[in-house]
Design brief:
about 180 residues; mainly alpha; globular
């Protein structure tokens, strides 16, 4: 279904796009927190949701049988209890956490081996129900989810006159 190279490419795209998004979101905190009709309310609420979701998935990946050493820093972080749970206060702290998570995703992607892609990931969903999914399916979801919410964010920003620029995967600069 997918390869390790695909995961590395998507990890780089994720990092590139998040850097572009945070660079474009040059607004006062009150404007970032303003309710704008998005599923997670505001720009900051949507940015926070991406931090929460990525933390949840990375913590689940840390429990994968492959024992990814790069995800060790997440083992001591509490599992978020809600998809809208504020993780940090303010835009600067969100941006710092985003950079940390993106660096971790990129580092983890280089640790990923084909054998791990052949395994399933066992985890519990937010309702506590046991789940078991092929790792490739989980990883496609991880990156698709990020892209989905970044699309919402680019729309919210463009509605107030801020341009994120080109967001197409094909436009990402070569490594």
């Amino acid at each position: 279904m997918i390869s390790c190279d695909y995961v590395r490419h998507m990890a780089r795209y994720n990092q590139w796009m998040n850097d572009k998004l945070y660079a474009a979101a040059t607004l006062p905190q009150a404007a970032l927190d303003e309710a704008r009709g998005a599923f997670f309310g505001s720009i900051s609420g949507t940015l926070n949701h991406l931090l929460v979701a990525d933390t949840i998935w990375l913590k689940r990946l840390a429990a994968h049988p492959a024992g990814f050493a790069s995800l060790e820093p997440l083992r001591d972080i509490a599992m978020p209890a809600r998809l809208d749970l504020p993780l940090v206060d303010g835009f600067a702290a969100q941006q710092q956490r985003r950079r940390q998570l993106d660096a971790l995703i990129v580092q983890w992607s280089h640790e990923l081996a084909p054998a791990a892609l052949a395994q399933v990931l066992d985890y519990h969903n937010m309702r506590g129900e046991a789940q078991s999914r092929p790792l490739p399916e989980v990883l496609v979801h991880l990156f698709n989810h990020q892209t989905h919410h970044r699309g919402q964010l680019t729309t919210l920003l463009s509605q107030i006159g801020l341009d994120v620029g080109v967001t197409d995967l094909i436009a990402m600069p070569a490594a």
